What does this fold into?
Amino acid sequence: MYVVIVGGGKVGLNLARELLRSNHEVTLVDQDRATYLRLEQELEHVVQYGDGTELWVLERAGIGRADLVVAVTGDDEDNILICQVAKEKYLCERIIARCNNPRNLQHFRLLNILPAVSATDLILNLIEHEVPGHGLVHLLDLPDEQLEIIEVEVTPGAPAEGRRVDEIELPDGSLIISVLPSGGGGFVPKPDTVVNAGDEVLVVLDPGLEDTITSQFSGNGAHG
Amino acid sequence: MLVLIVGAGRVGSAVARSALAAGHEVSVLDDDPLSHERLDAGMDSTWEEAGGRFTVGTALEIEALIAAGIEEADVFIASTNGDNTNLTIAQVAQKRFDVDRVIVRVMDPARSDWYREQGLNTICPTKHAIEMFNASLGLTA
It folds into this structure.
């Protein structure tokens, strides 16, 4: 695989190292002369000096034959532009963009620069996952496929507590794919599997159904 | 007609004043409050007294664009000092806010040409400078 990485900060450098270690071909582009010289000491001909938002710099880096373009500079507008021309001008099939400011994620989505990876959001997701009692964790979002996977903890008194999987009232467009008992271990449930308080339940669903689903598992008896 | 100008440097502020003088409603967004002084410079009254609007904010922030009136804008001019910022916000204006006329300043001729092919109304001052240098040297392109 040939990968062009724009931005030679910690993320770009370590990506380049790892990809080279797995025998991929890599070009790393950075526009800061001092950074370039430092990177070149270690990675030699793999590193190129230039502004990766300039088309001739991307062409010199061989973007035309890249299997993957990764834009990980510190500027979101630069990452958006690099990925946009990679996709639309150079017809690169796969791109990955770094989103430095989560508030800019909407711009990446608007221009279909996806996946856009936001370190802040990744850490927030981890915090969500670690904070006990927080009802719902997004495990996976596939906006293009209109699909999400969430994890909810069953609270005592919730409508679903003590019920069989086939008796739980879930809206169309959702499905329980796993029940993780509080004692450990996880399994694919059968229709007669009983869900208990403290269990964690994984549900695949159409976006927008989260509230209806959480009310079943952590509704605190609001529904009876 | 409401003209929203993002980036009030030499170019943006001059265009803002011309548009205001021509009787248009003009709103300016810039992240540097000092840019406001550039709008006032050489005028008899302040920018606001003359009827202009000024918002301090970052171009990529949706809230700032909305505060500056992007939802009502008929014309959107992206003239910050960053080509990639201009190209991004111009597409936001076009695709998200359906602004009728979007004009974007791009210093790099190559990016200007390609995005023009994609349907953005780009203006490239660098190209004009090259043409003028060439002309004064008696060269033809």
